[in-house]
Amino acid sequence: MHDRLMQPGPYAYFEGEVRPTEDARVSIMTHSFNYGTALFEGIRGYYVPEEDNIFIFRLPEHIDRFVRNFGILNMAIPQSQKEIEDICVDIVRRSEFREGVYLRPLAYKSEMSLGPKVHDVASDWCCYAIKLGDYVDIDSGLDVVVSSFRRVSDNAIPSRAKTVGSYVNSSLASSEAKLAGFDEAIFLREDGSVAEGSAMNIFIVANGALITPPENADILVGITRNTVIELAREELGLEIVERPIARSELYICDECFFTGTGAQVAPVRSVDRRQLGDGTPGPISKQLQDLYFDVVQGKVAKYRHWCAPVYT
Ligand code: PMP
C-alpha cells in the first residue's frame, strides 16, 4: 500500500523547464488554486528488474486525453502532444528512478487573477513524478459501499476532463467510505444508475459477460477500462456490454472489480456488506488482473507497444 505522503523524484517540469522539484512552486493567488481550474493525468511506469528498465504504460493515450481536454477549460498550451510525452519520459529518466513511478502532468490556470472563469486566463502545465507501488489492496478483494454523494454530472463539472475541481466530489465519497470502515466508494449518478468508484471505473461479471457503464454515464473514460475491455475481448473471448447498471445488480453479480491507473485491476469482495460469490476475487477478475500485470510489464509481445521504455 502507498505511503500517505508522496515521495517525489528530484526533477519536475515547471514554467517551461525541468528543474529541481523543490523549486516548482505556485503562488497562493494562482487562479487554479483558488477555483479548481486545472486538469490532470495520472500515468504509471512499471520497473521491470529483468530488463532494468521502466515502462510507461500507454503514455500517448494519456497525453492524448490530456491535450484533448484542454479545450474544455479553454486552455492554450504551446507544446505538442509529442513534446509533452518526451518531457514526461525525461523527468523519469533524469530522476534515475529504479522502481514503480507515477507521473502527474497538470495543466492549470496559472495567472494570478480574480474571478471564476475559464476564458482569458493564462494557462501553463507542469509535471512531477513520484514513487508508487500498489495503491489499493489488489489481492484479497475490497469491501465497498455505495456513496451517499452522487457523481458530479457532465453538465455540472465534466469529470471526463479530470478537472481538479471534480475531485472534491471524489474526495467526499472516498472519505465517507473510508471513515465508515470500507475500502472504497461507488458513485451512483443522479438517475440512480451506477457510475464508477472515486477514482476508478467499475465492471461487473454476470452470465459470463463483462458489463460496465457507457462512456456518457458521467464517468471518466479510463485508459485502464479501455485496456481491460480490449484484453477481455481479444484474449479471453468475453462479451463486453456497455450499459447502465442498476444498484441492485451490484448485489447479485458474479464478480465485480475496479480499474484505474492507480487501482490497476482491483477485485471487489463485498458491496454494501453483501458478499459477492465466495468472498474472494472471482476467476475472471483474477485472470484479467494477471493478464494486465503481464501486459503493463511488457511481457506480452502483442501489447508491448503500449509500454514506452524510459532507459534506452
Ligand atoms: N475514474 C476516475 C474518476 C478517475 O480519477 C480515474 C483515475 N484516473 C479513473 C476513473 C480511471 O482512469 P484511468 O484508467 O485512465 O486511470
Provide a descriptive summary of the structure in words:
The chain is of the alpha+beta class. It has 2 domains: 2-131, Aminotransferase class 4, branched-chain amino acid transferase, N-terminal domain (D-amino Acid Aminotransferase, Chain A, domain 1); 142-296, D-amino Acid Aminotransferase, Chain A, domain 2. 24% of the residues lie in helices and 29% in strands. It has 7 helices and 17 strands. The protein has helices spanning 31-35, 59-69, 81-95, 167-179, 223-234, 247-252, 283-296, and strands at residues 11-14, 17-20, 38-40, 43-48, 53-57, 101-109, 123-131, 142-150, 184-188, 194-197, 201-206, 209-212, 240-242, 255-260, 264-271, 274-275, 307-309. The strands form 3 sheets. Strands 8, 9, 10, 11, 12, 13, 14, 15 and 16 form a 9-stranded mixed sheet that branches. Strands 3, 4, 5, 6, 7 and 17 form a 6-stranded antiparallel sheet that branches. The chain has a two-stranded antiparallel sheet with strand order 1-2. β9 (184-188) and β10 (194-197) form a beta hairpin. α2 crosses α3. The mean pLDDT is 96. It binds 4'-deoxy-4'-aminopyridoxal-5'-phosphate (PMP). Residues 42, 159, 170, 196, 199-201, 220, 222-225, 259-261 line the site of 4'-deoxy-4'-aminopyridoxal-5'-phosphate.
